[in-house]
Amino acid sequence: MSMWQAIRETLRAILRDQGLLPFFLLAVPIYSLFYPAAYSTEAVRGITLEVVDLDGSVMSRQIVRDLAASPGVRLIGNAPSVEAARRDMADGRCAGVTIIPADFYRDVLRNTPTTVEAWGSGAFPVQNKAVLEAVGAVVQNVARQAAVVRMVRQGAPAANARIGRDPVPAFVEQNLFNITRGYGSYVVAAVAVLIVQQVLLIGIAALIGTLYENRAAPLFAAEGFATSRFVGMWFILAALVLPSFLYMFGFAYWYQDYPRGGNVGAMAAFAVLMSFAIVAMGLALGALFGNRERTLQAMLVTSIPMLFLSGTMYPREAIPAPLQALAALIPTTPGMNGFIKLNQMAAQWNEISAEVQHMNLLIIFYALIAWVGLRLRARRLAR
Does any domain span residue 205? Predict the structure, then answer.
């Protein structure tokens, strides 16, 4: 059987299998529409917050009013004590607590060190960040106003006091890439690569398992296993994977309005490399499992670890060395970092040379494993 015959047989096997066809045609578009829906607001809103006001002063009431007007948090009331607020937070009635200490107003006017405490939950880092940012912004604004009052009381002209409160030039924070500072723009850019990989790995490995179970072409032929058939399967499956990347980084990112289009040409070239890497890994997994159901089970339990091992959601420097070595075997590790640099940061091809070399090594590594594994299993089953 020639390479072209293998291409035809591979396409025929996919089109005939109603269970596999959705993985190649429908799964990625469906994921691209429904997964980002959870992050459609980009930033969290209305995180529940309780205040413990132990001061009861004009300034503390100003802090409470400003917190109530903050879009990031929703003030649900004043707790009578710190212990009551602690219980409410432990019971899940609020996601954060702000404690204004006794004599806060007096200490601020006297320039005596004092602290407004903000509690959040480490189990929910996004909510925790929203609470800390809202409380920090409100307290800083009140502190600047208090500084003006203190300077005027000390005899400084009001105009000079305002200049001291708002120094020139002012510091303006502007993100270069995630302009909206949205959580969706941050997380979906990485998860999209994982979605394409996992969905198509399942489809490819399940296809190989089905061919084994049915002793079907192109894996099985009268002349035995041939390298030309392996190459034909590899190329046609890569051609089926590539449109998923182009769709995700093209239409899906445009439709969801995520940062995109930084370096389109280099992105397409890198997508070709990752398509070959995913197919090689899928063929290797298919040879390893030899069963269409086992691949689905394996991919479901490894998706979240793959995301964190990539270094985009968790600092790579904090990942133990053995886990970093394991992460180096996953195409999404160079894939996520490479695509983020190209799509969001408009990197040039030479700036992702490390990711390109890494991807090429994975292509060679998994292609060899797949070729040896498929050859050995085909010979064993042909006996």
Answer: yes
